[in-house]
């Protein structure tokens, strides 16, 4: 009995500081965001009037918001799919391949992840610039002028320019994660398969992929959370939503409404929607990817 | 309230922990009065193309004249964000230099929230008599149109279309300066044959001055006044339609330098668009004389800027020129209101007028100083400028056949989910990329005006 | 691995070629832009501007002056120190908070465990971008309520906020790792007479070293590069990332491309060096089960 009590005390002591800080710096502010979404209030002075769910009603008819949400969803989906494919591919190549420079590639691929967003935005500014940009001048140099584009202007392209930057930044991070779980697969699985005459590609689909599936599933939630956040940081510096709202994303729109339009309460309502959206989306994704997990 | 208590309690615990850890860093903050009995005047100024030096000089000059005052200068290139924080924190500056029409819309938001003080009493008859006529009689000084001045115009700049002067006069003259929109577009077709685009714009927001000018040009000052107060018929009227169609034509890929929109939407890319006028890729852009200083580091020696008024619709009209002002204002919650007003008044003194005229900016790469005069809206100030492009722009505005127009869109209550800048100017990018037609643009403006009118106070 | 290479089919050459093309393509897309920024930081303004300027041209001379100006303008010296202090404090706090919490969450059964697990999970979904202002207001109110000037512009508080914001992810990561350890270790320790605390610090935490390294690296990068919270809570005690943001804003008002890129390099360099130094550990840490779903 005594032991039980001291165990309880220990658990409490372990958890209390972390929980207090979580409550203080995450939950209370979040509750405040929910509360403020029910008010009309300015971005500078703190005058407030309670208006109930009015902000959310306005949101439903706000075309700019709907466009921003659409863009956000497109970005999440594309970044998630492309990054998974590329990160798994590169992880598999680096994990199973036998060639020189494996370590070199692994080191290089992670670099985008360590750079500050400001640096990345600076880099992509230099890449996408229409006349002196690295991309267009390169295309001209290899006589593919026809492929040169206004990467930051054309309405059908500009959002993909942002998406590309996001994927570029994310590959290394997830690749290392997948490599970690691939390294945990016992080598005899592959040996047995290759004795049976399986090709690398067959082995990938029959062994590697199923065995890292649970790890991929976990990362799906990360994609949702981090893409919502990163797309905001990228867009804020790279395009600020332009041209004509073509790259507007939810968080950036929230920011603009809260701070440059003087609609702070309305901005917080957008914040609430984004929070619920990411939560529900993660739940749905978790549900539909829920299938038998292969253990090893 | 309960939550506040819990929060406070938790924070106290955190603070106690910090104290124990001995990491607390405390800084003495000036609260109104300093130990030596001097009154502290908190002055927040935007550090933009005019550089930082001018504000430091003004600070010194004011302290010189008011020995019992200590001016605390807060200079920042992101003043809007700093102030947002300071206001929320209850650390309100006494006087602020930050103008309308900035990307952040900070002053507009302050106005929407009624957080700027009425300073009509600064502008007594004596001071008014000293100022350029009408400079305090428009919406950029009287945002609510109630006859009261809230924003003090301390800098004024005629705006127009900027170009490379040597292409239009002198030995290497290639083209004639157009005066009507028809001539303007004809020139565009000609220049196109030479491989030069007619027009570019740093960012779509730079269309503000142009649009005000065009409204006045199309329908006269009465029409302009109705338009900026969101008259229902603004954009469906013949005059309004003319403005929309001209902008749509101007923004079409036929006339706009191809990289314009891409640069306008990239971080810092507006300067590349401005550079394209210097480099001869585009003939004209809307701007003000600050562009000279802004681009000084990358302007080749011997390059000459020129500015003309945006074209007229008919040859026999007078030509309007939009005067852009930069404002100083006092927050409604300022602590030292009287002293702040004194400071605003000081802006129009001979001392400051001269300081501004003699302003210089430093090239960081070469450490060379170059003149970047700032012109105060005090009568006679612009006459003291050295001969050259900048003086010409002021002379132009006051010469025969030209009329000045100033002001800004009327202030409304905050409208949730509405973005004035994106709706009115941002759409110009879409006109260029073909995402929007002139008719759609017109409809968007009509809808916006309806919404704005409902929210005018 | 050897065995696969023994029976080489023609298709394996194509496969190999494919591998190299894919790897090189990605590597180049990373190396070139990053190297380009280094190169651009040494160029003079005139080398960026004009009709006939190629972005691929090498700098005419190494114009190191750019770095001097960037360093001075962005006040990078003091900011650098601030960044070091804040990042280090935040990392220590984070580990002190997260290790016991994750250990307790993953190795003990108690009432409310499920709720706490869900709470930490939910914390993952809260985005700092919208709670940063409420945090600021809370700290500002606390200052007023207690009549002190303590909670804002305080490096320790900033570090505390950093640590708290990283808690959900870190706890998630560490508890995932603790869960994979066999139960036997603790029982052995108890039998040897170790208390709970000693068992944790002497046995379990050392075993989690690879995961801890991963946590440190991940969070080092995010704390070091963070500027939204820093900007909101600090006023004077700026960090390096804020200095860079500010430099970019200043350079926007005049055309100084070289200086701007020099600023980017100054901020990028420390993280690059640190990363190259410890990169081996990073993958190791992850490989040793740090991130098992």
UniProtKB/TrEMBL annotation, chain A:
CDD domains: TM_PBP2 (cd06261). GO terms for cellular component: plasma membrane. It holds the Pfam family BPD_transp_1. It is a multi-pass membrane protein. Keywords: Cell membrane, Membrane, Transmembrane, Transmembrane helix, Transport. The chain crosses the membrane at residues 12-31, 73-95, 107-128, 157-176, 220-239, 264-285. It is found in: Cell membrane. GO terms for biological process: transmembrane transport. Residues 69-285 form the ABC transmembrane type-1 domain. It comes from the Bacteria. The keyword Acetylation does not apply. Belongs to the binding-protein-dependent transport system permease family. PANTHER family: ABC TRANSPORTER PERMEASE PROTEIN, INNER MEMBRANE ABC TRANSPORTER PERMEASE PROTEIN YCJO. This is Carbohydrate ABC transporter membrane protein 1 (CUT1 family). It comes from Faecalimonas umbilicata.
From TrEMBL, chain B:
Residues 1-21 form the signal peptide. Belongs to the bacterial solute-binding protein 1 family. One of its GO terms (cellular component) is cell envelope. It is found in: Cell envelope. It comes from Faecalimonas umbilicata. This is Carbohydrate ABC transporter substrate-binding protein (CUT1 family). The keyword Ribonucleoprotein does not apply. Keywords: Signal, Transport. SUPFAM superfamilies: Periplasmic binding protein-like II.
Automatic annotation (TrEMBL), chain C:
It is found in: Cell membrane. Its main location: membrane. SUPFAM superfamilies: MetI-like. InterPro entries: BP-dep_ABC_trans_perm, MetI-like, MetI-like_sf. The keyword Transmembrane helix applies. It holds the Pfam family BPD_transp_1. It is a multi-pass membrane protein. Gene3D superfamilies: MetI-like. Residues 80-278 form the ABC transmembrane type-1 domain. GO terms for biological process: transmembrane transport. The keyword Transmembrane applies. Keywords: Cell membrane, Membrane, Transmembrane, Transmembrane helix, Transport. The chain crosses the membrane at residues 12-38, 79-103, 115-136, 156-174, 212-234, 254-278. One of its GO terms (cellular component) is plasma membrane. It comes from the Bacteria. Belongs to the binding-protein-dependent transport system permease family. This is ABC transporter permease protein YurM. It comes from Faecalimonas umbilicata.
């Amino acid at each position: 009995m005594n032991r039980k009590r001291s165990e309880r005390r220990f658990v409490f002591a372990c958890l209390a500081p972390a929980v207090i800080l979580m409550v203080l710096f995450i939950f209370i502010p979040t509750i405040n965001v929910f509360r403020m979404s029910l008010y009309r209030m300015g971005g500078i002075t703190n005058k407030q009037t309670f208006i109930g769910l009015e902000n959310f009603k306005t949101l439903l008819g706000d075309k700019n918001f709907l466009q921003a949400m659409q863009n956000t969803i497109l970005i999440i989906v594309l970044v998630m799919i492309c990054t998974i494919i590329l990160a798994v591919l590169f992880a598999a190549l680096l994990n199973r391949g036998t060639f020189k420079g494996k370590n070199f590639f692994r080191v290089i691929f992670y670099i985008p992840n360590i750079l500050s967003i400001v640096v990345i935005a600076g880099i992509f500014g230099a890449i996408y610039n229409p006349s002196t940009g690295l991309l267009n001048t390169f295309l001209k140099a290899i006589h593919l002028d026809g492929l040169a584009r206004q990467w930051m202007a054309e309405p059908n392209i500009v959002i993909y320019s942002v998406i590309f930057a996001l994927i570029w930044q994310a590959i290394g991070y997830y690749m290392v994660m997948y490599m970690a779980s691939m390294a945990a697969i016992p080598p005899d699985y592959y040996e047995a398969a290759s004795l049976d005459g399986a090709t690398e590609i067959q082995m990938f689909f029959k062994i590697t992929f199923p065995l890292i599936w649970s790890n991929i599933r976990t990362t799906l939630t990360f994609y949702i959370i981090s893409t919502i956040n990163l797309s905001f940081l990228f867009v804020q510096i790279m395009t600020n939503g332009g041209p004509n709202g073509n790259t507007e994303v939810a968080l950036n729109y929230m920011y603009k409404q809260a701070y440059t339009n003087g609609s702070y309460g309305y901005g917080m309502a957008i914040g609430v929607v984004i929070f619920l959206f990411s939560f529900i989306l993660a739940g749905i994704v978790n549900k539909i990817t829920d299938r038998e997990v292969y253990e090893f | 309230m309960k939550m506040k208590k819990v929060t406070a309690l938790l924070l106290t615990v955190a603070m106690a922990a910090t104290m124990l850890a001995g990491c607390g860093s405390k800084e003495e903050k000036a609260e109104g009065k300093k130990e030596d009995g001097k009154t502290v005047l908190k002055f927040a100024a935007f550090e933009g193309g005019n550089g930082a030096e001018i504000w430091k000089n003004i600070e010194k000059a004011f302290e010189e004249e008011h020995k019992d005052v200590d001016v605390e200068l807060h200079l920042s290139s992101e003043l809007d964000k700093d102030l947002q924080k300071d206001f929320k924190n209850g650390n309100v500056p006494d006087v602020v230099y930050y103008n309308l029409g900035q990307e952040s819309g900070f002053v507009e938001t302050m106005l929407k929230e009624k957080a700027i003080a009425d300073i009509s009493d600064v502008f007594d008859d004596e001071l008014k008599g000293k100022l350029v006529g009408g400079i305090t009689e428009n919406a950029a000084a009287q945002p609510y149109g109630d006859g009261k001045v809230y924003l003090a115009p301390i800098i004024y700049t005629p705006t127009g279309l900027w170009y490379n002067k040597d292409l239009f006069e002198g030995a290497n003259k290639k083209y004639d300066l157009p005066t009507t929109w028809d001539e303007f577009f004809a020139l565009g077709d000609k220049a196109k044959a030479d491989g030069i685009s007619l027009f570019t714009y740093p960012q779509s927001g730079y269309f503000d001055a142009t649009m005000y000018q065009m409204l006045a040009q199309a329908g006269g000052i009465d029409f302009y006044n109705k338009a900026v107060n969101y008259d229902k018929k603004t954009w469906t009227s013949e005059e309004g339609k003319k403005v929309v169609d001209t902008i749509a034509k101007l923004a079409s890929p036929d006339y706009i330098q191809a990289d314009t929109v891409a640069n306008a939407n990239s971080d810092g890319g507006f300067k590349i668009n401005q550079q394209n006028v210097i480099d001869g890729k585009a003939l004209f852009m809307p701007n003000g004389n600050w562009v000279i200083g802004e681009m000084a580091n990358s302007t080749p020696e011997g390059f000459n800027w020129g500015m003309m008024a945006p074209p007229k619709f008919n040859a026999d009209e007078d030509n309007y020129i939009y005067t852009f002002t930069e404002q100083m204002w006092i927050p409604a919650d300022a602590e030292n209101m009287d002293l702040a007003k004194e400071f605003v008044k000081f802006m129009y003194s001979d001392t400051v007028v001269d300081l501004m005229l003699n302003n210089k900016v430093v090239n960081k790469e070469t450490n060379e100083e170059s003149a970047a005069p700032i012109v105060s809206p005090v009568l006679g100030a612009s006459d003291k400028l050295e001969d050259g492009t900048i003086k010409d722009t002021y002379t132009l505005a006051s010469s025969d056949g030209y009329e000045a127009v100033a002001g800004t869109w009327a202030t409304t209550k905050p409208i949730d989910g509405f973005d004035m800048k994106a709706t009115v100017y941002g759409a110009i990018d879409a006109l260029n990329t073909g995402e929007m037609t002139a008719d759609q643009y017109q409809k968007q403006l009509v809808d916006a005006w309806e919404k704005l009118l409902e929210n005018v106070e | 691995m050897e065995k696969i290479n023994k029976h080489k089919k023609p298709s394996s050459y194509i496969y190999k070629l494919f591998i190299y093309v894919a790897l090189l393509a990605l590597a180049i897309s990373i190396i070139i832009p990053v190297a380009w920024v280094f190169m651009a930081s040494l160029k003079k303004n005139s080398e960026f501007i004009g009709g006939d300027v190629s972005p691929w041209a090498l700098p005419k001379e190494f114009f190191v002056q750019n770095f001097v100006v960037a360093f001075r303008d962005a006040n990078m010296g003091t900011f650098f120190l601030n960044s070091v202090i804040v990042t280090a404090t935040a990392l220590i706090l984070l580990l002190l908070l997260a290790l016991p919490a994750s250990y307790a969450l993953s190795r003990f059964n108690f009432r409310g465990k499920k709720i706490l697990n869900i709470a930490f999970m939910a914390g993952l979904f809260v985005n700092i971008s919208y709670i940063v202002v409420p945090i600021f207001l809370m700290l500002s109110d606390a200052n007023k309520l207690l009549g002190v000037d303590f909670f804002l512009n305080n490096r320790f508080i900033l570090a505390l906020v950093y640590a708290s914001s990283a808690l959900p992810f870190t706890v998630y990561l560490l508890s995932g790792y603790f869960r994979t350890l066999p139960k036997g270790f603790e029982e052995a320790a108890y039998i040897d007479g170790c208390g709970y605390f000693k068992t944790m610090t002497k046995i379990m935490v050392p075993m989690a070293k690879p995961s801890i390294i991963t946590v440190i690296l991940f969070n080092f990068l995010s704390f070091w590069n963070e500027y939204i919270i820093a900007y909101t809570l600090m006023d004077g005690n700026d960090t390096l990332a804020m200095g860079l943001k500010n430099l970019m804003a200043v350079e926007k008002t005049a055309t100084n491309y070289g200086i701007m890129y020099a600023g980017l390099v100054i901020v990028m360099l420390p993280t690059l060096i640190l990363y190259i130094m410890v990169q081996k550990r990073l993958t190791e840490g992850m490989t040793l089960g740090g991130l098992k779903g």
